Amino acid sequence: MSLARRGHRTLLARGIRIVVLLGLVFTAATYLGDLDWRLERFCHFRLQYAAGLAGLAPLAWWALGRWWGLATLAAALANVAYLAPYLPPSGAQAHAGLPRLRLLSCNVYVANATPRRVVDLIEREDPDVVVLLEPLQSWEERLRPITSRYPAVAMDLRDDCFGLYAATRLPGFHAELRSAERQGLPVVTLRGRWQGRALTVHAVHAPPPSSAGHLELRNETYRTLARWAREDAGDTVVAGDLNAAPWSPDLGRLLRDSGLRDTRRGRGIFPTWPVGFLPLALPLDYCLLGSGLAAASFRVLEDVGSDHYPILVELGRARGP
């Protein structure tokens, strides 16, 4: 081998080693999120770590040796283990032939310049429950065609990122504006009866984990939602932007403490943020269900001018034992 070729291979090996080490460090950081809010961010990108490390494993084996290759593959599989429960086929299914409840949730984005696209989407999909996050005060008039068709509506339209709008046309339901944490950020709770059982839908936009304080507010929101879910009579749904990936340990605690299930589980990962940039794709928008309900379908809808894609979930009664 010529000196030039040997030098090129050495440089390539060094580059591969650096990238592999970064992947190993990032994967290790996913287990340390409880130590510092900055480390918590690493847990959300397991999909990216798994894909990147799996692709690097054969290169690391070739350029650095067997043990580097095996370590890279092991780190990839450590991330895949968290993704596997979300891959089909598995998960509870709704009874075929029974009535379905259609829920649409969309973070419309505080800087959205095309609110008409949001209204058009709602009119076309015609859901039974609508949840909109980040609508500004100026959206009230634009949402009037939707509000007029949904008898139970509650909203807190604001000039920040935490405006909230939720509505349902299910007969006999009422809407209540609440707060899940000490900062007074809004939650809308819809209550009534559906298919002979009490049903409660909590519409929420959890704060992003962009600082230690925001992370604590997000987790405080999770704790309140878990308590409400345990106290709710009948069936519970939590819908909205929870600002965490499904494999976040904090979101995992919400699911364990509340008894709710993620409708993605056994269906797919379904990233919803950011629009148009696949390398950072994360599933941040949710529909969580109590044990009496199951998802018949889960769809990610088209871009409506937001940084999030909307989701549409069809719910039905879960298959009982």
Give a written overview of the molecule.
The chain is an alpha+beta fold. The chain folds into two domains: 3-86, no CATH class; 101-317, Endonuclease/exonuclease/phosphatase (Deoxyribonuclease I, Chain A). It has nine helices and twelve strands. It has helices at 3-29, 37-40, 46-64, 66-83, 115-125, 139-142, 144-147, 212-231, 249-258, and strands at residues 101-107, 129-133, 152-156, 164-168, 174-179, 186-194, 197-205, 235-241, 261-262, 285-289, 293-300, 311-317. Strands 3-4-2-1-12-11 form a six-stranded mixed beta sheet, covered by helices on one side. Strands 5-6-7-8-10-9 form a six-stranded mixed beta sheet, with no helix packed on it. Strand 1 (101-107), helix 5 (115-125) and strand 2 form a beta-alpha-beta unit. 41% of the residues are buried. The model has no long low-confidence stretch (mean pLDDT 91).
Between the first and last Cα atoms, what is the distance in angstroms?
A: 68 Å
Please tell me the total number of domains: 2
Radius of gyration in whole Å, from Cα? 22 Å
CATH architecture of the largest domain: 4-Layer Sandwich
Largest sheet: 6 strands, mixed
Low-confidence stretches: none
Question: Share of helix among residues?
Answer: 25-40%
